[in-house]
Automatic annotation (TrEMBL), chains A, B:
Name of the protein in its database record: Proline--tRNA ligase
Annotated localization: Cytoplasm
UniProt keyword annotations, A-Z: Aminoacyl-tRNA synthetase, ATP-binding, Cytoplasm, Ligase, Nucleotide-binding, Protein biosynthesis
Naturally occurring in which organism (per UniProt): Nibricoccus aquaticus
Domain notes: Consists of three domains: the N-terminal catalytic domain, the editing domain and the C-terminal anticodon-binding domain.
Subunit organization: Homodimer.
GO biological process, one term: prolyl-tRNA aminoacylation
Length: 588, 588
């Protein structure tokens, strides 16, 4: 048991000025964290206790799924990252670590970097240590600090420069094994989130810069989440914004019959979809082709979507470029022959089609029959454009942003959208990293194969804050039992009265024996202050011991989740409280 | 319990080429660590288990001494270090953390640095959070990774770029309280080292760049240690090289009576103490003054020691300069009037005495009567020099290196010297940091005072390696019970024989119930391989279960510290092994 007076819980009445969301405010007000700098937080004693409990539950569940714990350095030789598949993109969010003294490497590539995740470290390690199929499968994990040089850290621990992650890496002999490892970890994640008291849902996700073949995000639903979840609870479909598709294009859609010949017409000053929707042109958005130009690894390429759709830029990741960005007007004109506003992809109108890396079309443009697009001539458009007849398309893909109400691709029911906080992410990586680092093993026929990898992460510090975001009220935090820094708070109203202190100690001992961590508020403060702080720091079970109650032979029991106060006869208090602890622990 | 086949212990027959010392070789050979880069190590699964046990024992002991655990960021805003008292010196060994992508800060001062220790972080935190005497004393600690940009990392975890430390910081209302806090931590350190099975001795130490008023190092004696301990076991005196003094100067020493007038004499070509000792001059080293010139914070100063003594450069730290370095010949000549070889400090011979920041003399020069020193005229010396009469000394101090056999300052008995590994260091800091950061509190009279600080560190990863250095034999590691990654290793010689595997599981269960962590070697390997690995990884208690033994109704028990093998009848095996576990645990 700990005494408040000998512990350190600096609660605050006011929220810090930079805290925009409830959980961030409560983290600071309840004395769980203090800000050192942008995105850099000290875990104060109470916060660290919650963090350690989350960590321990995570360790147990990953161990239970066969994970083997190790601990890799925070500082990485940059050359390993340079050898890996994502250095160009990753370095933008990484810290480099040079000598603070001499600045000798100023202007040069870094010698060391701080790890945001550890694929580039574990893969060469496994390559060096594992050579035989007999040592596979293996799943290594660590729970450690990660670093991202966030330009705009915000929301407390949600988007921080330093954060704590459980990251694990599976190595299998083949794809079948890798899928098995993936699902074992997915099941462990589900148990973990349940045990810490979080409602987390697994959603299909994009693999992004990490690469790989498939992926799920674990999201805790919350208004302030930084990610959209597109879902339908009946069908069970759930995907994040970058991955979500809808069933608006029927699978058996036939190409529209061309209605007439292509016809160029003047559209002076028309530079937007909206302008072409307006009179005198009156072309509906869903009858327009929107032609967008990007640069992928240095070469221009075209993406065509419907005029009334929005591009979901992350979906361009499926095209396989390492670095993608929007093209400038200066880059577009020499290739297409016109400025933005009059662009199109009708065969024969592209000035220098040979310069393009491709023309990629969203499936939904197949819904357009006899549409309109730019003529690649400033101030002109073309009508009666038909996909199959008129457009030179390299390949179709899913590039559009899904809207609520569109049909779920699984069941056709309307899709819904809600915000969520990403607290975990799992990837089936395939051989992307094992290829780069030569992580091969020999099978029982002495044949050599690439290992098939998966990688998996849980944001431990982020989960701590997400739990607060999910579980608080106007008075403060409402900790789930399993991760509460203390499970029982004894408010000792008259700490100097020996009898009261003695009762507190006895009850604390009984609660501890039943499995609770106990904090005794022995401060020389008014009851009102103690009760306010008790609500603020959110300990699940509160016991109040005061001289007045003791005269009546009672102590008071109150759950943080309820307003009800139960008076316990002193003679039964220890047993009743121990029983309450055991019941709560069994339920959690 | 863990199965070897599902765990990961990559043992090696050969030592890595860069391992110079036994513990470094064993760390790698036993599969406890793997090198990622110079001074950067991955803790492999077995190594991490030992590390976590040491960590937990440390946590319990520091908690027991009233320590309050928190966790501060690894990345620090550089401005806090700039505000602190030791930036100029510390930045030489620190990493800066900039963006890896743009290198915008190239050539400029860093925005962030990686913490080698956390005085500059905890002091402003406490200043912001504690304002009243009622919240004092407090001792905050963390167990976390620290960073030093070592130019020449070596000896494995001994001198690494990343290492794990327990660092704690005490804040008291006054000096008396600070001394009490210091001694509470010192006692906790002694318990910690005893519990992890280390023979560590507390030695008086220099406060160095950390500053402060007094200090102890905890040293584990070892040939390969990087530090000398000067000691006498009977008197109990123990100090490190930088701090050690000897009793060669009697306390009641009277100044020698001047024997004659100062006399300059020609010494062409004489540039060293040795040359003046030789004929025709024949001046013994202990009758010569050695005059050394340094630059302290930009100004030259003189240090005088006996000709036959060596300077202990770290002792110049007591002079209070922030940065000290040897002066060059070009810097010396304009001030003293001569080149090195003919330097001295006789009154009136220094060309520009006003430029000096001081003349500091080692106590032992007072043993010289009628000595010889340089004349500050190239090729000339002066004889009949007497300290009190002839030298303009700013102050006396202890600057010489102690030699074995010199009298212990406490008892006069001969001092001995041995090598040790520094595993802990505690400092009474005083108000050096609270002053810089304005960490004040208000007393019960509403008066404001500076908090009095102490800081304390234990090298957790270093202790792990030092334990191996202290406890190994030709076959491998001999882990102390308390920190062994597993306490019991069951060598299952015929893992495919169901009966044997069943017995192993039963015995493992009994040993675990008695409090041991159990590893079962279920690999498909020859007994010889298993026994060699068992000795190498050094698990304290080994149980051998084989089909042959089971036919005879026995299993074998062997301690790592003994060659003796005990045959246990199968019926008694569980009970006997559980008893052995309980006995070993009670002793550790």
């Amino acid at each position: 048991m700990k005494l408040w007076s000998q512990f350190f819980i600096p609660t605050l009445k006011e929220s810090p000025a930079d805290a925009e969301i409830a959980s961030h405010k409560l983290l600071v007000r309840a004395g769980l964290v203090r800000k050192l700098g942008g995105g850099l937080y000290t875990y104060m004693p109470l916060g660290l206790r919650a963090l350690q409990k989350i960590t321990q539950i995570c360790r147990e569940e990953i161990d239970g799924a066969g994970g083997i714990e190790l601990w890799m350095p925070h500082v990485h030789p940059a050359e390993l990252w340079e050898q890996g598949p994502r250095w160009a993109a990753a370095r933008e969010i990484m810290f480099r670590a040079d000598s603070a003294g001499d600045g000798k490497r100023a202007g040069r590539d870094p010698e060391f970097v701080l790890g945001p995740t550890h694929e580039e470290i574990i893969t060469p390690l496994v390559k060096a240590e594992i050579t035989s199929y007999r040592d596979l499968p293996k799943n290594f994990y660590q729970i450690a600090t990660k670093f991202r040089n966030e330009i705009r850290p915000r929301f407390g621990l949600m988007r921080a420069r330093e954060f704590i992650m459980m990251d694990s890496y599976s190595f299998d002999a083949n794809d079948e094994g890798a899928i098995k490892s993936y699902h074992a970890i997915k099941a462990a994640y589900e148990k973990f989130f349940k045990r810490v008291g979080a409602t987390a849902i697994a959603v299909e996700a994009d693999t992004g810069v990490m690469g790989g073949s498939f992926s799920h995000e674990f999201m805790i639903p919350a208004e302030i989440g930084d990610d959209d979840v597109i879902y339908n609870e009946e069908s069970g479909y759930a995907a994040n914004r970058e991955k979500a598709t809808s069933g608006i294009v029927p699978k058996d859609l036939a190409d529209a019959a061309p209605a007439g010949a292509l016809e160029e017409f003047a559209t002076p000053g028309v530079l937007t979809i909206a302008a072409l929707e307006a009179a005198p042109y009156s072309v509906p958005g869903d009858k327009q082709f929107k032609t967008l130009v990007f640069i992928g690894d240095g070469k221009p390429f075209i993406v065509i979507i419907r005029g009334n759709d929005e591009l979901e830029e992350a979906k361009l990741g499926s095209l396989g470029f390492t670095v993608t960005r929007a093209a400038t007007a200066e880059e577009i004109e020499p290739v297409l022959g016109a400025k933005p506003g009059s662009l199109g992809a009708v065969k024969g109108t592209i000035k220098n089609a040979g310069a393009l890396a491709g023309v990629f079309a969203d499936h939904a443009i197949r819904l357009i029959g006899n549409g309109t697009t730019g003529a690649n001539k400033d101030g002109f458009h073309v009508r009666n454009v038909n996909v199959a007849r008129d457009l030179a398309i390299t390949s179709f893909g899913d590039f559009r942003r899904v809207r609520p109400g569109e049909p779920d691709p699984k069941s056709g029911q309307p899709l819904k959208v809600r915000r969520g906080i990403e607290v975990g992410h799992i990837f089936k990586l395939g051989t992307k990293y094992s290829e780069k680092f030569g992580a091969v093993y020999t099978d029982d026929q002495k044949q050599s194969h690439l290992m098939v990898m998966g990688c998996y992460g849980i944001g431990i510090s982020r989960t701590m804050q997400a739990l607060i975001e999910q579980s608080h009220d106007a008075d403060g935090i409402v900790w789930p039992w399993s991760v509460a820094p203390f499970q029982v708070l004894i408010c000792l109203l008259d700490p100097k009265v020996e009898e009261a202190a003695g009762v507190a100690k006895k009850i604390a001992t009984a609660a501890e024996a039943a499995g609770a961590d106990v904090l005794i508020d022995d401060r020389d403060e008014r009851p009102g202050v103690k009760f306010k702080d008790a609500d603020l720091i959110g300990i699940p079970l509160r016991i109040v011991i005061g001289s007045k109650g003791l005269k009546d032979g009672v102590v008071e029991l109150k759950w943080r989740t309820s307003k009800e106060v139960t008076k316990l006869p002193l003679a039964e208090a220890e047993a009743k409280i121990a029983e309450a602890v055991r019941t709560a622990a069994a339920k959690s």
